[in-house]
Amino acid sequence: MRKSNVYLNPIKNCYKVSADKELLQSLIEQGVELEFQCHFGSCRMCVVRLVNGQVYHHQVPGITDEEREEGYILLCSSKPRSEVLEIERIYP
């Protein structure tokens, strides 16, 4: 099973995540405290900005094509596609 390194900004902690799980699930399993509610992409609480790397992002109602083009993803509906990801938390 392929693993990816995820760097979570602004602290730049590194977490190993599996390519077959959504990022939200993998990070929560490692004790990362993240805001979430729905697990299927409609509440937008887990939106982050992808700074570096690639993900597979399911089509979900919680994010627009324009936001996706600007680098925003939802952790609950994204799986890693590259060996290294750098993501930035979005705080309200």
Automatic annotation (TrEMBL):
Q: Does the keyword Transport apply?
A: yes
Annotated 2Fe-2S ferredoxin-type domain ranges read: 4-92
The record, for InterPro entries, names: 2Fe-2S_ferredoxin-like_sf, 2Fe-2S_ferredoxin-type, Beta-grasp_dom_sf
Q: Give TM regions.
A: none
Required co-factor(s) are: [2Fe-2S] cluster
Keywords attached to this entry: 2Fe-2S, Electron transport, Iron, Iron-sulfur, Metal-binding, Transport
State the family it belongs to: Belongs to the 2Fe2S plant-type ferredoxin family.
Its name, as the record gives it, is 2Fe-2S iron-sulfur cluster binding domain-containing protein
* Record organism: Halalkalibacter kiskunsagensis
